[in-house]
Design goal:
The complex is a heterodimer of chains A (about 800) and B (about 350). Among the domains of chain A are: about 150 residues, no CATH class; about 375 residues, no CATH class. Chain A is about 60% helix and about 10% strand. In chain A, strands 1, 2, 9, 10 and 11 form a 5-stranded antiparallel beta sheet that branches. In chain A, strands 4-7-3-8 form a 4-stranded antiparallel beta sheet. Chain A has a two-stranded antiparallel ribbon with strand order 5-6. In chain A, strand 9 and strand 10 form a beta hairpin. In chain A, helix 4 packs antiparallel against helix 8, helix 5 packs across helix 8 and helix 11 packs across helix 15. The longest helix of chain A is centred in the middle third of the chain and has 57 residues. About 5% of the residues of chain A have low confidence. In chain B, about 40% of the residues are buried. Chain B has 3 domains: about 100 residues, Topoisomerase I, Chain A, domain 4; about 110 residues, V-type ATP synthase subunit C fold (Up-down Bundle), CATH 1.20.1690; about 110 residues, V-type ATP synthase subunit C fold (Up-down Bundle). Chain B starts with a helix and ends in a 15-residue tail after the last helix. In chain B, about 65% of the residues lie in helices and about 0% in strands. Chain B contains 17 helices and no strands. With about 350 residues, chain B is mainly α. Chains A and B meet through helix 3, helix 6 and helix 7 of A and helix 4 and helix 9 of B.
Chain lengths: ~800, ~350
């Protein structure tokens, strides 16, 4: 026992020792202190204002200002993005600016941008309208030409045209005059021309038809390319239309419909000369506008680029400020309103660092009073914090996905680091596939720096996060593959020659009957001669099945032993006596015995039937074993083990709840009045404090039922969990059979033909099957089964997993969240 | 199919039912409302809402906010959710979902027609329309001069067309007959929706007919109260009541002849479910009736979620969200106009 205590402490075995600390920070240095703590990232603040809604808190205005600033930053970022620029941090270092300055600057920038946008938008709209006008002129002109010439009227209208042209020339009222209907010709037919979205044109035409009761002619032509809609500024396909109709009433209606459908009407002159003239006007306007627009864009881009230099830094700064104020909002004012009181958890090793940071904050902010930092007693369970590194992190995540460890509870991740990849490899044993995985894992690790800094897809992210898991998994599958002697299901003579040889020269098909053992056993792993022999499957099945049970029993024993260490650590002798001991006895007297039998059978080469032994151990324990006897005294041992197992069940079921009950009544006997006295002490404390004690009611029936469930689960679980480990055999079998099928039925079959095409096709099918089915699907399924074996079979022996994670207030974590 | 929805419902409706139940859990709770009611400015409201599901819709709005922006953004969220569900829905759920929006369509039609009658700008009117009740040619409504044209030009393309058969007249539009048109349309819509739900059968029919009957009865009461003292004749009034619901037919006879609010009350108190609503009001009072009805409706809508495998949850969710938006609008208005004492007058807590 003392030897155990003298062992060096494992960092990962128990979560960091935490303490509850109280900070009393003078108001003037509060902001600085909290931001220094955020840089340090080792203190988790408790929310002391839980009952207050967000806007009733102290620093709500600052939070609001930060939110407003980040909104402006988002706006600017969006603008930069829209302009097709990439914000890059400026090469030259920038002077630090404080929040107030930044706020003013941002206000200016936003204002400027909005103004520039408004200007360019107005121009853009005009530009788009002119563009549409141009289209209408071109297309509608074609219609008008084709609908017949009005030579007779041209002459008379010429004078009028000149007058109108003056108008166009001198003002930009070109567009204000839209909706000018074409002048009526002899037949009284008038027209309206315009442009409309392609998606609306059918309904538009139908509506026109209905309104005019069919008394109209609708002509349309698609524009050559997509144009920007003046109203929405989006690229749309549009269609130029010309509606011919007669009557004033119809005109009003049609115009209304045009308006309703968002069709832009442009006047088109009927005669060609005038139309050409207008087209010229429009074109010159267009080129003018283009230059103006370009200048505006250049100006805006320049402004955006200059902002872009600072953008990342500003965003970071605003985010930090907001986080600081959010944290400050978790603090309470003390009675004098001059200090802020905060409570939080921190690991004990961080105490000096935190004190240093606080000291620095006091001096930097020229505060008269220092920050008071003291440790408090706590009743609430502290958060769980494991210091992990690149490698251990992924395994800790695997464990945390099941449940975060209770504070200072034995951490299964320590063992998972090895057992997880190992159990995976037992199911995935093939050193060819292992090498493929290894290459993948090495690729991920080699490019760690690059991949770590960029954003990956969710699948890649997962793969990248588990790169070290992948690495160990692949190494172990190479190892297991060597033991199984499979390289893409092909055996190799790596470690010398096979121990078997043909009895005579006639046996060419290497059947096991024709083979004799002529030298020492193959030194490592499975003898390659087994492959393809008639007894290959029975041999490998028996081997893998027994091996799975051995691994299972070993891992479950480890789990129970860990429960011992937990009980020891928490000083719970009841759990050791009435849970750990009977559990050990029960599991080992039945399945430990089975493991023993397996090992003896392997060593002795006996032909005993272990099923028979195990089954008749229960059915008729006193009967002679006969030919299944493996060692002297086996019968007696079996009876003793059976008795022990039978005793162990009530042992783990009954004593614990009764002893708990006795302890409880003893503790509170005759002390029912003392509670009053103690409660006074806590009256002056803050109501939410973690120091608040909560007395538990002892409910015997609940405890008893709980114990009963636990015992039954263990007893039944001993059987079912052992059986569950057989999945190692099953998956391993499936994997090796699948790869054999792909190798023999695809690759070898194709190779049998003397045809390059068939061979290539065979090779392609084989490599795809290997990559997608064996390397991806099988990896996934083996991973999931290994996961299950850890979560269920291993962890249910000792792991309660009802803790909560340590989430320190840290700027680094903040940045991660945002990305 | 009747009674065996549990066997087959999830084939098509399971995903969306899960979605809508998830949406429901995002509704504001009484605690949220309590916090909202304590807000001092609209920024406080925005801040509080940013912690709820409305957060992403409001986060890019510059301060100072306006009530209309809040309501607009909240409605946008509802519309987005509705569109998502509609896009995922198969028959007959998609038809059911479409039915939910017809009420808004009727309101929008009436809004535009009334607006053009009073010579308001069409664009301005369009902005006021509920986005759920929009249809393509809604702006063209302004062209129509009378009911017949309205029907022939525009509404014939919309799902509302069949409901119009009752009100095709060549009379020019005026306020009175627009209002009558609204109620006739609504009556036809409710009856059609009711029939449709009945054909769906199962729990949907059961729950929806309850909810729609309540809706129809509430409309009947509202029509009665609003038409007291107008030139609407008893027979005309009687014609506007939907032909189903708890009050149909005898209650309608009584409501048709009511001359003042107390007579309505006397007629309604014969029906146990409505007794509790009217017992909350003092005699001669009709101001709080709306709120009382809303509260009862919310209670019933919440109960619709207690059963599984029916479409009523979609209707209930949409209605609850609309109620929530009404609540938010009221709270924001009260906060904006510094009338915080009245904030509780019209807020209906959902949970």
């Amino acid at each position: 026992m003392e030897y155990i205590d003298r062992l060096p402490a494992m960092d990962l075995m128990r979560s960091e020792k935490m303490m509850l600390v109280q900070l009393i920070i003078p108001v003037e240095s509060a902001h600085r202190a909290v931001s220094y703590l955020g840089e340090l990232g080792l203190l988790q603040f408790r929310d002391l204002n839980d009952d207050k809604s967000p806007f009733q808190r102290t620093f709500v205005n600052q939070v609001k200002r930060c939110a407003e600033m980040s909104r402006k930053l988002r706006f600017i970022k969006e603008q930069i993005h829209k302009a097709g620029l990439t914000p890059s941090p400026s090469p030259a270092p920038q002077p630090d600016i404080d929040l107030e300055e930044l706020e003013i600057q941002l206000e200016e920038h936003e204002h400027g941008l909005i103004e520039m946008n408004a200007n360019s938008e107005k121009l853009q709209q005009t530009y788009n309208e002119l563009l549409e006008f141009k289209m209408v002129l071109q297309k509608a002109g074609d219609f008008l030409l084709s609908t017949g010439s009005h030579v007779a009227t041209q002459e008379t209208e010429l004078a009028e045209n000149i007058h109108v042209n003056d108008d166009y020339a001198e003002t930009s009222s070109l567009l204000e005059q839209e909706m000018l209907p074409g002048p009526s010709n002899q037949t009284g037919v008038r027209f309206i021309s315009g442009i409309i979205c392609k998606s609306k044109v059918l309904r538009f035409e139908r509506m026109l038809f209905r309104t005019t009761r069919g008394n109209m002619l609708f002509n349309q032509a698609p524009t050559d390319d997509q144009i920007l809609d003046p109203a929405t500024n989006e690229l749309v396909e549009k269609i130029v239309f010309v509606v011919f109709f007669s009557g004033e009433q119809a005109r009003v209606k049609i115009l209304k419909i045009c308006e309703a459908f968002g069709a832009n009407c442009y006047p088109v002159a009927e005669d060609t000369i005038r139309r050409r003239q207008i087209t010229r006007e429009v074109l010159s306007h267009l080129s003018d506008l283009e230059t103006t627009l370009e200048a505006g864009l250049r100006h805006r881009d320049k402004a955006l680029i200059s902002i872009g230099f600072h953008l990342a830094k500003w965003m970071n700064m605003v985010r930090r400020e907001k986080a600081v104020y959010d944290t400050l909002n978790m603090l309470n004012f003390d009675v004098t309103k001059k200090c802020l009181v905060g409570e939080g958890w921190c690991p004990i090793f961080a105490k000096t660092k935190i004190q240093e940071a606080l000291q620095r904050a006091t001096t930097d902010s020229n505060s008269q009073v220092g920050v008071i930092f003291h440790v408090m007693h706590s009743v609430e369970s502290p958060p769980t914090y494991f210091k992990t590194n690149h490698l251990t992190n992924a395994y800790q995540e695997i464990v945390d996905a099941y449940g975060v460890a209770k504070y200072q509870e034995a951490n299964p991740a320590v063992y998972t680091i090895i057992t997880f990849p190992f159990l995976f490899a037992v199911m995935f044993g093939d050193w060819g596939h292992g090498i493929c995985l290894l290459l993948g894992a090495l690729f991920l690790i080699a490019r760690e720096k690059k991949l770590g800094s960029q954003k990956l897809g969710s699948f890649m992210e997962m793969l990248f996060g588990g790169r070290y898991v992948l690495l160990l998994m692949s190494l172990f599958s190479i190892y297991c593959g060597l033991i199984y002697n499979e390289f893409f299901s092909v055996p190799f003579h790596i470690f010398g020659n096979s121990a078997y040889r043909c009895r005579d020269t006639t046996c060419s098909d290497s059947r096991s009957v024709g083979l004799v053992k002529y030298q020492d056993t193959y030194p490592f792993g499975v003898d390659p001669s087994w492959r393809g022999s008639r007894s290959e499957l029975p041999f490998l099945n028996s081997l893998k099945m027994k091996m799975s049970i051995l691994f299972g029993i070993a891992q479950m024993n480890l789990g129970i032993i860990l429960s011992y260490f937990n009980a020891r650590y928490f000083g719970n002798s009841l759990d050791i006596k009435y849970q750990f001991v009977p559990q050990m006895i029960f599991l080992n007297s039945l399945f430990g015995y089975l493991s023993l039998l397996i090992i003896i059978k392997w060593c002795s080469g006996s032909q005993a039937d272990l099923y028979h032994v195990m089954i008749y151990m229960f059915l008729s324990p006193f009967e002679d074993l006969g030919e299944n006897k493996l060692f002297w005294g086996q019968n007696v041992l079996q009876v003793i083990l059976l008795l022990l197992a039978v005793i162990a069940v009530p042992w783990m079921l009954f004593p614990k709840p009764f002893i708990l009950k006795r302890l409880h009544t003893e503790r509170f006997q005759g002390r029912s009045y003392t509670a009053l006295g103690t409660s006074d002490i806590y009256d002056d404390e803050e109501p939410d404090s973690a120091r608040e004690p909560h007395l538990e009611e002892f409910n015997f029936s609940e405890v008893f039922v709980h114990q009963m469930i636990h015992s039954i689960e263990f007893v039944l679980g001993a059987v079912s969990n052992t059986a569950s480990y057989l999945r190692l055999w099953a998956l391993s079998l499936a994997h090796s059979e699948l790869s054999t099928v792909f190798y023999e039925k695809v690759l070898l079959l194709a190779w049998g033909y003397d045809n390059l095409v068939i061979r290539l096709v065979g090779l392609a099918v084989f490599s795809f099957a290997t990559a997608f089915i064996l390397l991806m699907m099988e990896t996934l399924s083996a991973f999931l089964h290994a996961l299950r074996l850890h979560w269920v079979e291993f962890q249910n022996k000792f792991y309660s997993g009802d803790g909560y994670k340590f989430r320190p207030f840290s700027f680094a974590a903040l940045n991660e969240d945002e990305d | 199919m009747y009674g065996f929805e549990a066997l087959t419902f999830n084939i098509h409706g399971g995903y969306l039912e899960a979605i809508v139940r998830g949406y429901r859990s995002g509704l504001l709770t009484a605690a949220d409302y309590n916090n909202l009611c304590q807000c001092e400015t609209l920024d406080d409201i925005k801040m509080h809402l940013s912690a709820t599901e409305y957060g992403s819709y409001l986060q890019n709005e510059p301060s100072p906010l306006h009530t209309t922006t809040i309501v607009e953004k909240c409605t946008l969220k509802l519309v987005d959710e509705y569109k998502h569900m509609l896009a995922q829905a198969t028959e007959p759920l998609s038809t059911f979902l479409e039915y939910i929006t017809y009420g808004h369509m009727i309101d929008n039609v009436v809004l535009i027609v009334t607006g053009t009658l009073h010579e308001r700008d069409v664009q301005e009117l369009l902005e006021k329309c509920h986005p759920l009740g929009m249809f393509d040619s809604i702006a063209t409504l302004a062209v129509a001069q009378n009911m017949r044209e309205l029907y022939r030009l525009v509404l014939v393309d919309t799902p509302l067309a069949p409901y119009f058969s009752e009100c095709i007249t060549s009379e020019d539009l005026d306020d009175m007959n627009i209002e009558i048109m609204r109620n006739t349309l609504y009556k036809a819509y409710l009856e059609d929706f009711y029939r449709f739900c009945k054909t769906l059968g199962g729990a949907t029919a059961e729950i929806m007919s309850d909810l729609l009957a309540f809706e129809a009865d509430r409309r009947a009461v509202n029509i009665t109260i609003n038409s007291i003292g107008t030139e609407l004749t008893r027979d005309d009034r009687r014609k506007l009541y939907s032909n189903f619901g708890l009050l149909y037919p005898y209650g309608h006879e009584e409501l048709a002849v009511c001359e003042d609010i107390d007579q309505v009350r006397a007629a309604m108190e014969k029906y146990p479910p409505y007794q509790s609503i009217f017992s909350k009001l003092s005699y001669g009072e009709s101001q709080m009736l709306d709120k009382a009805f809303y509260e009862e409706e919310v209670k019933r809508l919440c109960l619709a979620f207690e059963q599984q495998f029916h479409y009523g949850v979609f209707f209930a969710y949409m209605r609850l969200r609309e109620q929530e938006i009404r609540n938010l609008m009221w709270i924001s208005e009260c906060v904006a106009q510094n009338q915080k004492s009245r904030v509780h007058d019209s807020v209906v807590f959902i949970f």
